Amino acid sequence: MVSAARIRVIVFRLPILVLAIVVLATGIAGSFHTPALAQEQPQNRGWSLRDLLFPRRSERIATSADVSLRRLGQSSRRVRVTDLSPEGCKVRLPHQPRLGEHLLIKFDGLEVLESEVCWVDGFDVGLRFERPFHPAVFALVAERLKATKE
């Protein structure tokens, strides 16, 4: 027999699942594209299925700055950060990493941060920092990145 608590969980999640199916079926999500299209300039897609199913913990700031990124066992290279939050960032990579892969990212003037690939969309990759930025450090990094963007 199904418990009342389990029924409440199912009923609570059902509208989200139905909406997700509708969004995917109608192609509105726009969060999936082929690697051939990944070389195009990123566009403002509005909300996506990812935003619906995985709400963000904090607001992100839009930026366009280069940082150093290194795969374990390889040399570092410069990559573009397109948005940033205290918990993670979105970067555009020349390769497609695996989900769960650990990467080292270095913002100018800060120590190296360990990060984990939490989503991949073509060559755009979401990284989650192992240790989030302290609010004061994040404010400093955000100001530096805004200054380099202008």
Commentary on this structure:
The chain has 3 helices and 6 strands, in the order H-H-E-E-E-E-E-E-H. It is of the alpha+beta class. The protein has 2 domains: 4-33; 56-149, predicted glycosyltransferase like domains (Thrombin, subunit H). A 6-stranded antiparallel beta barrel has the order 1-2-3-6-5-4. The chain starts with a helix and ends with a helix. The model is unreliable at 28-44 (pLDDT under 50).
Fold blueprint:
Elements: H1 4-26, H2 49-53, E1 61-71, E2 77-84, E3 88-92, E4 102-106, E5 113-121, E6 124-129, H3 135-149
Count of alpha/pi helices? 3
Strand residue content = 25-35%
What are the low-pLDDT stretches, counting only 5+ consecutive residues below 50? 28-44
How are the strands ordered across the major sheet? 1-2-3-6-5-4
Number of strands: 6
Task: Give the rounded overall mean pLDDT.
Answer: 76
Level of helix content? 25-40%
